[in-house]
Amino acid sequence: VVVDYVKGYLDDAAAVVASGGEHDAGEDPVADLIRPMLEDAGGSDAGVAALCAQFSQMLSELEEQADAQKRPTLAKLAAPVNMAVQLAQINKATRASQLGTTDMAHVKGRQVASQVDVVKLRKAEARIAAKMEKRGSKSRYEASKLINENPLDDNDLLMKVNPILDYTSTRDKIKDVKLDSFDISFSGKRILTNSSVHLVYGRRYGLIGRNGIGKSTLLRNIAHRELAVPTYISILFVEQEMVGDDTQALHSVLKADLFREQLLRDEAAVNEELRRLDVPEPLDDRGEVMSKAEVDAKKAEMGDRLNSIMTKLQDIEADKAESKAGEILSGLGFNASDFSR
C-alpha cells in the first residue's frame, strides 16, 4: 500500500511537470506524507531516512525539469514583423476597449462592431480565475486546532464549523444526513467520484477501507463542511491522539458541551454584574456614579438576561449533565473512582 501511494504521488508530480504546471511549493511531501507512512509501516530509522533521501532526489529532478521548461527560449520568426502596423492596431484596440466595445476584422476586410460588454467580460474572467484557483487548492483542515486552541476560551474555529450550538432550537428538525453526487480530490488526484452518503439519526456507523483509499480525507471534508451537511447539525472531529493534562475525566466530558459551558459563563458574568450593582454608588463604564434610575434599569436588564439563561439551562437539563457524563465514562470502561482522575 505504501509503495502504491508513493508511486502515485510521484506519477502525479511528473504529470504536473509534463503539463507545464507547477507543483505546490508550500508542501513537503517527503516530511508530511511519505516519512510518516514509512514509519507507521514499521520501517527502521536508517531505512526510512535512506528511502526519503531517494524520494527527495526524485522530486528535485522533477523540479529541475519544471524549471527548465519555464526558461525562455529563442525562436525564429516565420516572417518580418512591421512594428508600426502592430502599434497602430494596439492603440486602436485600446481606444475601442475604453469605449466598451471592440472592433473585429471580418474575413473580407470590413470592420464589425462587437456587442461584447468588456466590463462584464472582465468580471466573468475574474470569477472563472477565482473558481479555478479554489479548485486547485488542497483541503488542509487542521482538526487538531479543535483541541490545541482550547475552544472553551476561543470558539471562533468551532463556530465556523458549527454556526448553531443552541440545540434547544433544533429539536424538531430532520437529523438525517443525506449527501448525493459529490466528488473529493486530494493532492491533485480524485479519490471519490459521484459518491453519496446517507446517515440515519440514532445509528452508529464505521468507515472501513484499505489504507490510502481516502477515509480520513472524507471525514475531514465532512468536518470542514466542504460537503453540504445542514448547518443545524453540529460536527465534532476527534483527533486520534491528544496531549494529556490535569483535566479530570468527568470535566473533559462536561466541557465538550460548548453550549452548556457558554451558558454557565454567561450566568456567572450576569451574577457578577448584579453584585457590582448592589454596592453603594456603583460606577458605569465611563467611571461615573450611576443614578438610581440607571441602576434599576441595568438590574432589570440583567434580571431578564438571567431568566433567559436559566430557562435554557433547564431546557438542556444542565443539572443532570454530570450524571450523563458519568454514564458516558462508564460505557467507555471507566470506574467511578476514575472520574476524578
Observed structural traits:
mainly alpha, 50% helix, 4 strands, ATP-binding cassette, regulator of translational elongation, 12 helices, two-stranded antiparallel sheet, ATP-binding, 341 residues, nucleotide-binding, 8% strand
Question: What does this molecule look like?
Answer:
This is ATP-binding cassette, regulator of translational elongation. The protein has a two-stranded antiparallel sheet with strand order 1-2. A two-stranded antiparallel ribbon has the order 3-4. The chain contains 12 helices and 4 strands. It has 341 residues and is mainly alpha-helical. Strand 3 (177-186) and strand 4 (189-199) form a beta hairpin. The radius of gyration is 31 Å and the shape is extended. Helix 1 runs parallel beside helix 3 and helix 10 (258-277) runs antiparallel to helix 11 (292-315).
